[in-house]
Amino acid sequence: MLKAIYEHLKKGLQKTKEQAKIGLSELNISRKIDDSLFEDLEIALLKADVGINATEEIIEFLKKEAKKKGLKNGEELKGLLKEKLISMLKGCSGELRLLNEKPDVILFLGINGSGKTTTVGKLAYRFKKEGKSVVLAAADTFRAAAIEQLEVWAERTEARIVKHKPGADPAAVVFDAVNSAKSRGDDIVLVDTAGRLHTKEHLMKELQKIKRTIKKFSENQPCETLLVLDGTIGQNSINQAKVFKESTDVSGIIITKLDGTAKGGALIPICRELKIPIKFVGVGEGIEDLQPFDPEAFVSALLD
Ligand SMILES: Nc1nc2c(ncn2[C@@H]2O[C@H](COP(=O)(O)OP(=O)(O)OP(=O)(O)O)[C@@H](O)[C@H]2O)c(=O)[nH]1
Ligand SMILES: [Mg+2]
Question: Is the pTM here over 0.85, yes or no?
């Protein structure tokens, strides 16, 4: 099972790896260890969007260890680099927190195009595979065709969808979705919301209203508020996430589009700065292209 996850993640990250050139193989690793090798490695890490602070920490660590262990060849650094990256990402992952309240409600937020709706679809598929009954709440009543897009996912995953007309009050959609899930004893409600720009005050207010509506059914819900971040913007998502975090509690992060980016290394500064666990990563547009975030598999896919 772990092997299958690793293979899939590796495939998804192939492009990341090719473009990021984070692999020491790209740096001619059979070279002798000297300042120029460390410089090249530093550039590769920065290019992969690992960020200045983390890159410095990694280089310092490698220099110290290389000296201590009397390493001569760059090849020998690879294991250490892997170990260091994994240790930096440990504590950054987290499992989805479910309370089995029938329904558990999971709220998705993020700016336009970050991958919310696609992620809702992929997660619905995962839950259905586990035998859970899933309701999709079409609370993006704002963007044209958003409801139809979610309907396609509902069909694909055989999840029930609760929707209103375009322009309707999103909180009213959420009320109906949770209410019907509760009366039918459904397991999970996934709430798709409209893309929010942090500058748009009213969208933030709308989000708070959605949360209040969910809390009318249970003070413990939503059991997760997941912020969906576009992996292709790398470290730039940190500031974006901070603004969301200031407006509402965020319990987990999902980073999408890691299959199409040279900035996969940004996961390190993202998790270290935000201190919000990364719960899943998106590695493609397909229904199965969502993986629980596993630092070891991630680093292996990045380096091997
Ligand atoms: N390659 C790749 N594409 C993705 C991934 N996740 C989402 N996408 C694509 O990104 C685009 C935007 O995804 P949506 O799910 O519509 O994003 P959204 O956040 O719901 O967008 P709005 O509703 O406009 O706010 C779509 O073309 C998706 O197929 C991923 O992990 N990898
Ligand atoms: Mg959407």
Answer: yes
